[in-house]
Known about the structure:
single chain, alpha+beta, two-stranded antiparallel ribbon, 11 helices, 18% strand
Amino acid sequence: xxxxxxxLAERMLFDAPFKSLGxxxxxxxxxxxxxxxxxxxxxxxxxxxxxxxxxGVDVWIMSVATESTDATDSLPASKVGAAAGTSGxxxxxPIVQGLGTVTRxxxxxxxxxxxxxxxxxxxxxxxxxAPGTTPALLRASGRMFLNWNDxxxxxxxxxxDRIEIDGKEAIISGFFQGMDPHSPYYYVYSNIxxxxxxxxxxxxxxxxxAAGVAPGFTPREVKANLESRIPEVLVRTSDEFxxxxxxxxxxxxxxxxxxxxxxxxxxxxxxxxxxVTLYSTAVDRARDYGTLKAIGARQKxxxxxxxxxxxxxxxxxxxxxxxxxFVMRHLTPELSMAVTPKLALEVAAAAFVSCTLxxxxxxxxxxxxxxxxxxxx
Length: 377
């Protein structure tokens, strides 16, 4: 029976090809815009959390005043030892973070965030380093890692080039990858002593304590142990710290509202186009639907027929819309668009709901038809 309804739905759509093509185009545009808006927001949030997510740290310890990596304070360096001695902690390392101004080769001065990490673990350093770069290259005094993607801003920088931060020179000894924060700063890494010197960071303070989880423990268990042993600090697992970063960014900037509204508008556009087209088709085919009722079609049969038409638009429109989106994404790699299976499923769900709701507008018109309409002139 469903197969018959599907076949009849297809015939009705092909009988009005121009209206059907117009509806399909509307659904394609709706899917394309939803995917674009959602992926851009996901890409931006991925950049916002790139420092936390790329470091390989299990548990973070920080000041209770911390709201994000851009709104934080410092801790006494003595807390590193307390953290290292906590049950379930495999290792604990300090990280310092300071701001300065960097002078580019063209003379332009911009803000830079200097992150200092400690040998031999270098906890907090991105796990992905450029070919030829190893953490040991930070050991010598005055050495620094630059983001691989920032090389163009520094005259196609290569190892051995010098960089100036607040009038103090450092030597680029390597590059990190896979971390492109969404911020107004350049990010650089150095050993912890150089970071203190470059940013005048106090010797007895640290910004973060990075901790690793010992075998047999979970991050949540270690977090609870640290909170019990060092109650005057803020302890977060990596996932929780990442969520903090997203929340801070979405609350403090209009980005989430803008992209969320864009996605919603795209869904509404799809629903409106489907509703208008199917309603118009229902008016044009009033006698056909009346005939179906007159020969015994039940209300649920008519409802299924109308929904089948909407779902055909959804299925074909989703496939074409996503293909168009992936082509656009391939042609514009400079745009930060993150696509995951979850995001694709969410777009599919939104498109399905919008098409179904659009169909229900036409359904009411058809379901109220009097079968006697077929006998009227």
